[in-house]
Amino acid sequence: xxxxxxxxxxxxxxxxxxxxxxxxxxxxxxxxxxxxxxxxxxxxxxxxxxxxxxxxxxxxxxxxxxxxxxxxxxxxxxxxxxxxxxxxxxxxxxxxxxxxxxxxxxxxxxxxxxxxxxxxxxxxxxxxxxxxxxxxxxxxxxxxxxxxxxxxxxxxxxxxxxxxxxxxxxxxxxxxxxxxxxxxxxxxxxxxxxxxxxxxxxxxxxxxxxxxxxxxxxxxxxxxxxxxxxxxxxxxxxxxxxxxxxxxxxxxxxxxxxxxxxxxxxxxx
Length: 269
Ligand code: PGA
What we know:
The protein is of the alpha/beta class. It has helices at residues 33-47, 64-71, 97-102, 113-119, 123-135, 152-166, 197-214, 234-238, 255-262, and strands spanning 22-26, 54-58, 76-80, 107-110, 139-144, 178-182, 222-226, 245-248. It has nine helices and eight strands. The radius of gyration is 17 Å and the shape is globular.
């Protein structure tokens, strides 16, 4: 087996640049490879002029190569929804970081509440995955969030320790490769509604302050919101302090709706 790219030490990493707004979607377990091709073809022209923000899609594993084929050379990056912490070996059904890096993935999501629920993922396993993601020069999208609606102060009390445990695999000098997705579990999925923008702003400002203090380059990490985002609320969420971007689930399964969310005005521009 030939692995075409090799891991680098943090000093050899390509520069990532200042903190930019970032809006993306995970398709979760939706869209066949054929459907993914149609999605990418529809999305591309709708967002081609959005050069002031980072955009990404996270297809299921079988469709990542389609995203690479249809999105290479565009302003839409692609990535994966999970990764195994080992680089290779006897792990039936799993996918490693070098495999994803070889497919041009820029982002890899870890710790989504559905994976914690369905696969028993612990913060320590998430930390090991982040270590692999960063070692292979990709960025980790780390999902954290409280399970029940608690209000901002209690939510922070619950999620900051989880964040600390999950960042054990984050090498010093690599926080520009971290995106923290604040995803209150109660605000995700069918029948849910997004958390109130004021509460999101309060929680994310708390995460921001924590990251700024956590590491010398903690300010380089971005903090985004996910949970029932749609085009009606996207602008209000982006206007909140501490919100660097949005992470969209079911509404973004329609490329036209995702493009509308991606076009939401940014307070900083
Ligand atoms: P949703 O999913 O937008 O469908 O609520 C959000 C997420 O899980 O990131």
